[in-house]
Amino acid sequence: MQLANPENFKQFVQIKENNAVTTSEIVAKVFNKRHSDVLRAIENLISNSPDNFIERNFAFCFKNNRLQNGKPQPYVEMTKNGFVLLVMGFTGKKAVEFKIAYIEAFDYMQAELAKGTKGLLEQYYQVLGEHKAEKQFASLCGQGLSQWKEKKPLLEATLRLFEDKMQIELPILNN
């Protein structure tokens, strides 16, 4: 059981009213348990969990069972959090496989986050270095512009003097 592969979640999860849920029946089937045992495990969780957690993560439902002459059969819909809380209390091979896969999924995500954090830090220092270099260049440019402002009038006046001296005078013929 590898939780990192989304295909493996399909056996647990269904969409109902835009919420990802699973049912006590699916849990019983996947973990090879009797449905009545799964319901009993949920009842034990309820007695030991805060009401607000139960309300957010478990919904008690009934459906008509043709095999029992239309007698309503109880089942529970649960969110991911309710599912994980329930299954973490299970024993057996499937439960151990699930727990290991869940741990591996957390380890994988933690490793990815560590990579992402390192990548962000490296990117930060790269941008910081570029910022310092550009700031220094801009400062030099500013100093250069300040010097240019002072020297420009003198240099342009000197150039005009040389241009005037270099100008060739042409004799004008008068007829």
From TrEMBL:
- Ranges for domain Bacteriophage P22 Orf201 C-terminal come to 121-171
- The superkingdom listed in its UniProt entry is Bacteria
Give the coiled coil ranges. none
* InterPro entries in UniProt: Phage_P22_Orf201_C, Phage_regulatory_Rha
Q: Name one Pfam family in it.
A: ORF11CD3
Instruction: List the NCBIfam families hit by this protein, alphabetically.
Output: phage_pRha (TIGR02681)
In its UniProt entry, what is this protein called? Bacteriophage P22 Orf201 C-terminal domain-containing protein
